[in-house]
Every structure is written in structure tokens, then in C-alpha cells.
Amino acid sequence: MKFGKWYVPMVIGIIAGMVAGNIVIQPDGPAPTMSSSQIASAQNKAFVPPGQHDEYYMFSSGGHSGQMFVIGVPSLRRIRTIPVFSPDSATGYGYDERTKELMGGFTWGDAHHPSLSETNGDYDGRFVFINDNANNRAAMINLKTFHTEQIIGPIPNIMGPHSAVFVTPNTEYFMMGTRFSVPMDGSYKELEQYKESYNGALQAISVDQKTGHMTPAWQLKLPPWNFDLSDAGKGPSDGWAFLTTYNTEEATHLLEVNASKNETDYILAINWKAAEQAVKDGKFEEVNGQKVIDPEKAPGIVYAVAAAKSPHGVDVTPDGKYFVGNGKLSPIVTAYDFEKFKQAVENKDFTDEVRGIPVVNYNSVMAAEVEAGLGPLHTQFGTDGYAYTTNFVESTVAKWKIGEWKVLDKVTVHYSPGHGSAAEGDTVSPDGKYFVALNKLAKDRHLPVGPSHPENMQLIDIEGDKMEIINEAPIDPEPHYAQIIKADKINPVKIYEKDENNPDAIWSEEDARIERNGNKVTVYGIAVRSRFYPDEIKVNEGDEVTIHLTNIDLDQDITHGFGINLYDINFEVQPGQTNTIKFKADKPGVFPFYCTNFCSALHQEMQGYMLVKPKE
Amino acid sequence: MKFGKWYVPMVIGIIAGMVAGNIVIQPDGPAPTMSSSQIASAQNKAFVPPGQHDEYYMFSSGGHSGQMFVIGVPSLRRIRTIPVFSPDSATGYGYDERTKELMGGFTWGDAHHPSLSETNGDYDGRFVFINDNANNRAAMINLKTFHTEQIIGPIPNIMGPHSAVFVTPNTEYFMMGTRFSVPMDGSYKELEQYKESYNGALQAISVDQKTGHMTPAWQLKLPPWNFDLSDAGKGPSDGWAFLTTYNTEEATHLLEVNASKNETDYILAINWKAAEQAVKDGKFEEVNGQKVIDPEKAPGIVYAVAAAKSPHGVDVTPDGKYFVGNGKLSPIVTAYDFEKFKQAVENKDFTDEVRGIPVVNYNSVMAAEVEAGLGPLHTQFGTDGYAYTTNFVESTVAKWKIGEWKVLDKVTVHYSPGHGSAAEGDTVSPDGKYFVALNKLAKDRHLPVGPSHPENMQLIDIEGDKMEIINEAPIDPEPHYAQIIKADKINPVKIYEKDENNPDAIWSEEDARIERNGNKVTVYGIAVRSRFYPDEIKVNEGDEVTIHLTNIDLDQDITHGFGINLYDINFEVQPGQTNTIKFKADKPGVFPFYCTNFCSALHQEMQGYMLVKPKE
After folding, report:
1. Which of A35, A260, A479, B531 could disulfide-pair with A60, CB 3.0 to 4.6 Å?
2. Which of B563, B561, B522, B564 is nearest to B539 (CA)?
3. Is the confidence at residue B474, as pLDDT, over 80?
4. Cβ separation of A147 and B47 shorter than 8 Å?
5. Where are the domains of chain A?
6. Regarding the domain delimited by A509-613, which CATH topology (the fold level of the hierarchy) does it fall under?
């Protein structure tokens, strides 16, 4: 194994430095000055003049903000924040009844990897999915409305589904491999019992093609390792998914050291069509209502292949012929030949078996080891077989070519890139042109804003032989992964269609009313430039109040908000939308309500009063 | 009164159209194309090349998002979101104990008008304040850390302090005039008793010059009108504050129509030094612990002057010689001469008295009526006496000059500007150069993102005779006002100073420990690249758990997060910072915790386990 021969001393040095916590490998200090011709080139390419639209949408995870960011490329302007796992008082997300239910009692999520729906391996602009690493969930955003429409989970038996979302080429499935091992049935077991009682897992989620709705399909029981990232096969490798592992040492403490001992970990290749068949054949056990397949009892589903020390990303090439493992603690990117892998499986060309999983002969399936740089994390693809790998430790992006297997160009980024994202980079036909480095550290790149720094996106022009940084923008924490889709693939609606059948909606002032049933008060109201009907709501202290509000302004961009002073209530109604809020009128007195979203020249007049009559 | 002669039919038409809800006056449809020389000029001026810093910080309110946005000018990049009134899972704001307490049980706020601290009428870069229109609060952000350090309120007796924050020239005070009238003591009164039992109010907040900490000073009881915006006098008008009114009709329903009937409303001029003296002289009543001055009983504090129909903004010129009222429902901006106003007060040149407030003779104090355009809302100032007024209804910015009193140039913006902000525009010496129009509607200006639109900022170059739009960026809802400060005036810290005296902090692995006292468990932990100490926390179901976590990586931009799976917990520790979280261990089982903020190449290894032993 080539990388075994020379990377060890270097990596030990890096790890030692990081363990000591005082070695900063990435460059720091003032940025290199761009020449005036470079600046001219950058602004010609990246500046989007007022009134013109960006060429691409970038959907970026918001990390522990819980949200999704919609960013224009090449301008890098954040067009919108889509609330997903965390509340957003700007839009009333998590405050109105529908979105409160959607959030399921959680107040945050750790949104990691967005995935656009695909048809025949190409982004189709229908939906975008994202995982929640913290609470074992996934969300679906409908790109007609850009609103979160479904959140599933917490799904039982899994813990920290970091390695999602990466959809299959026709959005049949996505795989949520877990980062953390736990007792898989949710029981209590001490860490001393880790090796025998803890497990990793993979959750397959199936997607309804019409609605985008997600359903937990089946689970795969996996060894007590950490699983990091995954990708779906395509073309010749369609039907397979690939999953990186670390901590195959099965350490429970100080993983920084104890999970960095093995020279190699694994990439798992999972035959999800075989898993589907196993479920059909009844080869599963039901645990907490989930269909769990144990690969030891259902062979032919999971195979392992050695991967250099704690690999991070795994990425399938656009043609589906290779899957590429990124070293993290090794300076190489390994390309595996899928055809050779399939042959090795057929020939039982195995070198080992770990926990019932056959280990395919590395030397039989390894196509190349590309010397990408220090800390290669992720690889994205452009046109003509070009590949772009982010090197976290040395703060570069390396360009190399499938088949040539050597680095052709490198560009220094600022600083420490995690994922990168290329235009249509996860499809069967990437566009080339743009690559965005999602840098974890910004340090001195923008006006200082105190100890809490933004992350830093850098736009790289990848059209020429030499990569060129042409734009840069700070961004709130924390984009992990992003996907970039051609703008014309998405056609959102501008207003909500008038829904005459919604029993909560009313469409005229005449229908506005307040109904009382015991201590339950229900308000049917409208918001229209620039008034609420009704604009006086009288209730008694202790009443349970429900307000249904419909925005009857069927006009683009005319949003109304509804806030009640001191009642900690705010939500919004988009044009044509009806939303509902419920609360207990537990504070007596006089409380104004008002439109919180500037809607017209008479917006300030759009107000009313809620009078809460005190108990005698 | 000049404007009385001709504006009536036009305004009636506008109002009728808006009431009907179907007249869209602002331009719509595709934007006018910029010429290639205009584009070249725009990108030369507005594009900030990678690695270069912006020239100015813009502090923008985030409206009902509850937050403050820090934006670079001229790039219009959002550098940071500072959480203020709403939780932010990205930074753990509202999750850790300190910030949870700061939020005071509220989950949102309606942040309206940021105000930078001033010394001698110039921004000094120490603090920025902002009001919460929903919950009668104000917040102070320390610009050393860019963190919210204090929130006061809800303050009793006031309701909807929309007209803040506009600090006095040495940050002695800011005035929170209320938008809504309510029974001032918080009692319950029906709307039928509005005229006799409801009141507006003004809350003066004093500011500690060393710490920036705010204290409620005194309140002014005002008529049952709506108060909209305010500004502080400076130079000759220092010691006074100006406040616009609407709904002097004292309507309680359908304000859109019923508060738009009077030909004029008022601007109130408040002598806050006289109010200070009145408090010293004991001329106040204590209501709910607040010192309330009744101007009828303490004359010489409040005066009124007529202002065209429902005025919106009021703005004091840099030299303090004029205050300018913006018409909203009248097409004019009125400039009042402060010296003449003072003389009229001295001469008792009054035309009326309303609710005990003398009304100064309009004709004696009016310096000019500038025909700005349809729906003038706010005026900002540049160099050499130039003024810039946003016209909401006609979607323009009008440039005019103090003394010349006529419009010199107009530029169409997209669409419907609310406030505008000029570089150092609220100081005694504005910089000119840049003006940002904070447009309420974006419509077709950016890639479509469904029914929920962003707002739209446009950067206008105001250096030449003709104004020129040179940059444009979408922004999440909703910037109301913003202030733009020269970048070199702010010098934030990069890390938190190591605080050896904080009893919750520990600075080495050796001090990491878990203490138990009955069912109370206290963890003293550290976060350091790339591990937590301790990394195993064993508790019993039902325990009350407190975790103090210190980030001992004293290195710029090395933030660690701390999330616990399924426990809905996430917070962060900045370099050198200690934060605390408390929760009940009410779910038995095994729960990983992990660093949520990508911190190093071994970030994925930065994890541990919380084991919650089930009750027998």
C-alpha cells in the first residue's frame, strides 16, 4: 500500500501538533495582495450588477444554526435563510401551529448536508433534503415554496446521522449513516460494554416521487465504529452507496488520539438493492418498530475496503466508475475502481473479514493514490474529468484529473476548507465554471466582529488551467456542505394559491368573526393592506385563544406579520396563506397587536387591540 | 400652510388606492438595464476584492428576526448576525444560562432602530443600542465583543417603544416614545374609554458612560396618540428631542382610515433637560416604580408643532439648526428652524393647546416645505448640507439641499424604501459618499425564492451631482434602520481574556471534574483542540445537571460548540470564554456529545458520552 510507506512521520507530526493544540498550520496574517488585473478579472466575473440575477443557486447547510442558506453564485449574496430545524421569529417559523408541530418539540438541529432531488442523476429542482446530526432527523424543503414541508424523526435506533443527505440518482433513497455508536435498541449500557453492546447503523429513507415525502425504509446494523460521510453510486455503480469509517479502533475516550492509531480504516460499500431484497425476503429483525438488517445474517449487502487513516469524505465520480476516499490524516486521495471492486466481490478476493464484513483486497481495486495535499477532506468534480479536493490542513484546493491521477494546480484559500461545492458538481454532468470553498476559518479576511467569527466562502473560477479566486463572502455558522444548481431549474410560486377549502381560511371582511365555546375563543381573521379584521379581540383571562389569519393580498411580496405586545407571539402570513396560532390569555390587560412586516405606506396604522379582561 | 393648498386630492387618491388594496404605485417588472459604463463604474466602486476589507460597518436592525445584522459597505456582505432578542442556535444564544437570562423568558423581539454611541455628536464605536417594539425593551451590544451585554425591560407603563433608539450627542440618554396608547398603569380599560383612560408615553433611558449599561430614568405621560419616530437635538438644539405623532384623531379602530383624517398631526419637541430638572424638583408621580411626569402638571417640557398628515420620520440636521419632518401621507418634507422654535416658545407664540400641550405657531417656525415626492419617510444627511429623503410610495430617493430647499436629483430604487442610511449620517459631520436605501420590497430583483421574499438593500454613490446605484443585496427580514460607521472607529477583541477569577472556569485538564451534591451534578469541563475533558459524564435519570465549559484555546477564531444528541442542547464557547448550561437528565440512555463547530482536522473526533442511568 503506497501511502503506508511515507505518510506516517508527517501525519504523526501533524497529529502531535494538533493534540498539543498549539500548532497553526494554515497560513495567517494579512492576505496576499491581488494585482490590479486580477482584481479587474475578478470583478468582471463575480460582480452581479444591480438588477441582474445570479446564474446559480447555492443551497448551503447552516450547520448548528439549524437552517438552510440560499446563496446566489457568483455574487455570493445570501438571498434567503430557510428555517428548518431552529425557530425563526422573522418568519414565525416554530411559532405558528404548523411549524411548531413540524419542529417536534426541538429548538435546534445540526443541519449538515443538503441534497437536491435528482432525476437520472441530474438535479431536477423539485426538492432539497437535509439531515439533523443532533436529533436523528431529516427535512424536506419544497422548492416550489422554499418552505420546509416535512421533518421526520427522531428515528429510533440511530444516533447522529452525519453522513446524510446524498440521494440516489432517481431520489429513490438517501442513507443516514450514524456518526456515533450507541446501544442500538436505545437501552442503557456502560462504555465498558462498548465493543459488544454498542453499534453503528445506517438508516435508509425512501422518498415519494410525487410529494417528496420521506419514509424510514430499513436499517442496517453496523460495527461500533464512527461513520463520517457517504455518497450514492451512479451509472455503473447505481444501486450502491459508499460510507467512510473512522474509529475502527473502537475507542470510547480521547478519540483524538485513540481513534487515530490504525494505519487504515475502511470505506464500506453497501448494496442497497440487495438490502431492499433482504427486507422483502424477511431477513430483518424488528427493533422499536424499525426493520433492522444484520449484515452478518444477510451476507452480500456490505463490503469493506481499506482507506487511509480516518478518511473523511467519499465521492463518486460523475460517470460512476470510481469512488474517491479523502484521507484526512493522510495526504492522499484514493480512487477505487468500481468495476474492479465488483469483480473482487464476485471473486471473493478478500483479505480479511471484520465483524462479519468481508474486506476486499485493496490492491485489486485501488485505481490510484493522488497526492492531493495535507488533510484532504472532500472532492468535487468539474467537466472533462477534473476533480477538486479541499485540503484542510494546508488550506488549499487541489485540482487533479481522473485518469491522470496527479495534481495539476493548487490555490491557497483562507482558511482551512471543509467541503467544497462545484456547479452541478454532484450530477452526472457537472458544469465546471465555479467552485466554492467553504472555509471553516475567516480570521482576518473581513472587518473584525469580536471573538465570534463568521465562516468564509471563496468563489474559485475553474474554467481556465489555473484556478483563480474571484469572490469572497463571510457567512454565519456554519455551512458544511452546499450544492449549486443552475438557476433556470427552479421555478418557485410567487404567492400561495387561494384555498377555498381550508376551513381555517376566510377571504373577506364579512366572514371575519370571533367564536366562543366555553373558555375556547377562535378568531377567524384577515390581513389586508393595511388593516386586520377583526381589530379588536376581547377575551377573558385564562381563555384558550386560537387565531386563524389569512393574508388576502394576493400580490407578490406583500407579506403581513402579526405580533402581540408582551404575549411573545409573532408569525407571518404570505400572500394567500393562512396560519394559526394558539395561546392562553394568561396576562390580563390591554395588548396591542400589529403588522410586523412593513407592507404599505399605511403599515404603521395596521394595528388592533387584544383586551384580556381580568378574573373577578 | 402651503401644503394644505394642493396635496389633498393627490393624497386622497393615494389613500383610497391603498385602502382598496389594489393600487401598486411603485414600479414593477424587469429592472432597467444598466449601460456597460455604468456597470464598470459600479463594480469599480462597490466590489471589494478577496482579502480586502470593507470601508464601513453598517449596523442594521433585523426587525422581527430580533437580531442585528453587521454589513460591510460598499460590498453589502453580511459579516455577522448578532443575536439580540431572539434565540440563535448557531451561537447558543438563548440556550446557555447567561443569554437565557438576558432574554428574560421572551423568544423574540422586534428590533427597530440601532443607535451607535456618540461623543460630542460623533459615533465613537463603543456601543450600539437597539429597541424592541414588541416587548418594551432595549438592548446594548458592546462593540469590543459584538455580544449583547444587557437587555432592559419589559419596562412598565409603556407599550411599543417604536421611536427608539436615537441617542443624545454624548449618549446621556435615549428616548423610547411609545407607538401604542394603553392604560398607562397597566390596568384593564375598554376601548370605549380610550380618550380618557389610555395614554402614550415616553421613557427616557440613561446610559452609564463607562459600561454602556442602561437604566430607566423617567417617563413622560403623553396624549393617547401614536408616536412614530424621534431624533435627538444636537449643537444649538442639544437638550431637546423631537417625536412624530399620528392618530391624533384618537381612533381605536380601522386606523388606516380613521387615523388618516386630520390634515395635520404634530411633531412634539421635548426639553429633556427640563424633564431632568422636573424629576429633581419632585414633579413626578410614581407609577409601578417609575417616575412619571405629567406635562400638564410640569409645563415647559413638551411643545407641539403642526406636521403634515401622519408624519413618519423626524431628523435633525448635522448642525442641529433644523429638524425635518417627513410627510408620509403628504408629498412634502418640512424643515423647522430650531432658533425660531425657541423664540416662539419664549414669546408664547402659540396657536392652540391640545391636552395641555402648547402648539407653537407653524408659520413662525417653518423654514421650508420641500417637495420631496410621494410618501417621504426618512431623511439622512451628507456633506455640505445635502439631504436624502426616501419616498416610499414613488420608490425614489430625493436629494435636496439645506437652504436651497429644493430637489436637485432623484433616483429610482427597487422597491418602496423605508429608512435610508448615509455614511456617518447621524453625526455632526456626515461623510457623504454612500447612502443605503433599505427597500421594503424586493419582488423580482433577485433569484426567486418562493412567496417569502427578502428585503432589498441598494447602495447609492452620493459623491457626484447625480446619484448612482452601484450595488444591491437581498437581506433577511427586516432591516428598519441602520447606521454606517467608519471601520477604523471599531476595535474589537479577538479572544476573551483568560479570567482566572471566574469560579466556573478551569484552565487545565487536571482541574476537569464532576461533582455531585444530592441529585445535583456539576461538571467543570474544558474544550481544547480536539477533545473535551471530561469526555464521559455519568448521571442518574432525574439529576439536575450543570455543565460549565471553558474554551482554553486562546487562539483567534477557534470556537468550540457543545451539543448533546436528543437533549436539545447546543451552545458555544469562544476562545477564552466560559459558558454554562443547566438541564434535567430526564431521558435515560446513552447520549453522545460533540463539538458542533468545525475546529480542527480532528474535529470529528471531538466527542464524548453522557450516560443517563435509568431509575430502578
Report:
1. A479
2. B522
3. yes
4. no
5. 2-21+53-489, 509-613
6. Immunoglobulin-like (2.60.40)
CA distance B298 to B277: 10
- Edge-to-edge strand ranges of the sheet holding B434-439: B417-422, B434-439, B455-461, B468-475
Look up residue B522 and give its amino acid.
Answer: T
User: Splitting chain A (616 residues) into consecutive groups of 10 residues, what average pLDDT does each group show?
Assistant: 41 42 42 85 97 97 98 98 98 97 98 98 98 98 98 97 98 97 96 98 98 98 98 98 98 96 96 98 97 96 97 98 95 97 98 97 98 97 98 98 98 98 98 98 97 97 97 97 98 96 97 98 97 98 98 96 98 98 98 97 97 95
Q: Which amino acid is at A563?
A: G
Count CA atoms within 13 Å of residue B394 on its CB side.
Answer: 22
State what percent of residues in chain B have pLDDT above 90: 94
Question: CATH 3.30.70.100: does it fit domain A2-21+53-489?
Answer: no
Flag whether residue B135 sits within 8 Å of chain A, measured between CB atoms: yes
Q: Supply A386's cell numbers.
A: 477534473
Q: What is the mean pLDDT of chain B?
A: 94
Q: Which amino acid is at A367?
A: A
Query: Which residues in A lie closer than 8 A to residue B200 (C-beta atoms)?
Result: none
Beta strands in A261-301 (DSSP E): 264-271, 285-287, 290-293
Question: Contact A569/A95 with Cβ under 8 angstroms?
Answer: yes
Task: For residue B208, give every residue at least 6 positions away whose Cβ sits within 8 Å of its Cβ, in sequence order, or none.
Answer: B214, B215
Question: Helix (H, G, I), strand (E, B), or coil: what is residue B58?
Answer: strand
DSSP string, B357-417: EEEE-HHHHEEEEEE--SSEEEEEE-GGGEEEEEETTTTEEEEEETTT-SEEEEEE-SS-E
The string of DSSP codes covering B528-557 is ETTEEES-EEEEETT-EEEEEEEE---STT
Phi, psi of A281 (to 5 degrees): -85, 5
Measured between beta carbons, which residues in chain A are less than 8 angstroms from residue B18?
A: 529-530, 600-602
pLDDT digits (tens, 9 = 90+) for B378-426: 999 999 999 999 999 999 999 999 999 999 999 999 999 999 999 999 9
- Decide: A574 and A95 in contact? Cβ < 8 Å: no
Q: Per the CB < 8 Å rule, is A135 touching B88?
A: no
SS3 content of chain A, % helix, strand, coil (to 5): 15, 40, 45
Closest CA to A582 of A595, A609, A594, A564: A564
Partners of residue A72 in chain B, C-beta under 8 Å: 446-447
Query: Beta A578-584 vs B78-82: how paired, if at all?
Result: unpaired
CATH 1.10.10.10 describes domain B2-27+55-186+193-487? no
| Distance from C-alpha of A418 to C-alpha of A441, rounded to nearest angstrom | 10
Interface membership of A601 toward B (CB under 8 Å): yes
Rounded to whole angstroms, the Cα distance separating A417 from A408 reads 19
Q: Kindly compute the dihedral angle of the four CA atoms of residues A59, A64, A65, A70, in this order, to the nearest 10 degrees.
A: 0
Asked if B440 has any chain A CB less than 8 Å from its own CB, the reply is: yes
B238-262 pLDDT, tens digit per residue, is: 999 999 999 999 999 999 999 999 9
Q: What is the ipTM of this complex?
A: 0.95
3-state secondary structure of B566: coil
Helix axes A36-46, B36-46, angle to 10 degrees: 120
- Using CA atoms, how far apart are residues B435 and B461, in angstroms rounded to an integer? 7
Beta-carbon contacts below 8 Å between A and B:
473
pLDDT at B102 over 60: yes
pLDDT at B3: 41
Residue of A nearest to B144 (CA): A450
- Nearest by CB to B50, from A34, A475, A597: name it: A34
CB-CB contact of A437 with A428 (8 Å): no
